[in-house]
Sequence to fold (335 residues):
Amino acid sequence: MPISGVGIIAGGPAGSELQAFTRRAFTGKLIVQTRNATPLMAALFANAKPAGGGMSSVTVPMQGGNYVTTVATDASGKFPQPPALNPGVNAEWNLKIIITPIPFLGAEGLVQWDAAVIPILAARMNDAGNSQAEYYSTQIWTNATYGSQDMDGLPLIASAAGTYAGLSRAANTWLQANVIAAGGVDPTRALLNQYIVSAAKFNQGEPPDFGVTGPGTWSRLSRDYLGLEQFVITPGSGFSKVPEGPRSAFNALMVGSVPIYYDPAYGTEGTIYFMKGKYTAPYLHRAAAFAFTGFQSTLANYQLGYVGAVVTVAELVCVKPKSVTVFSGLNFDWV
Fold:
């Protein structure tokens, strides 16, 4: 609704006449107000791997024990009969389907013909990608239910109980993640370094690549850094001569060479996940990786218009849950 009587627009009858006879001055850009950034989802999907059809579209052979046994011997060189061990099992995942339907009504197309400032269809097509990104981010951070129709989430992967990849974690303890409850303490460099070492030990010597958490938890951790910052001025110079000015704070908080990031919209507060990137990645079906079906007429439903869909078939797979450490129960700032 145009605003009358403000600025250069007159009020009263003159303003009403202007409204009736004058086009609006559109900017020509649609500014999205409701969608969130999805950094963890983007990072994981940047490392996505291809998958195809078949039962258990992602099947990963696992060695859950020892195939051979090493023993000592004496000068005779004798050794016991080697047992035939069978520690090999298959970990299996089914890909999950998500669909974003996109309507295009016949009347909309006729009304916008040669008169569209923002084509509604273009806005819907753009929002389809945003919608799927938000869906995946939500599931990555919240889904703890095995066998659901939704993508597996970090709470399911980073668990020491239940079933994962079709296998019991009680019977196959090597599928258990490193689960640590902090018990209401502030995240500090010393505390996180302790649990980064724990993560490396639990993962048989491999430290995590990164940690990720919510913004409030990250903010509380940053308190342990900011009080120690120092600003050094070169003699004969000053901050006024540096276009960027003095630098303060960080994009990532480094603890023991492990960067800690935050997911601003979806990160779980009070919880930090430490991960090894090479073991956790989405698998995307080759024929349905954010694929558009094309538009089909809705005349069969006695409606003038079209409908299409963006379809993605994927699953988040962790082939070594021991590489994931979840550190929960931390204090966090309200941001």
User: Anything to note?
Assistant: Residues 66 and 210 are 30 Å apart (CA to CA).
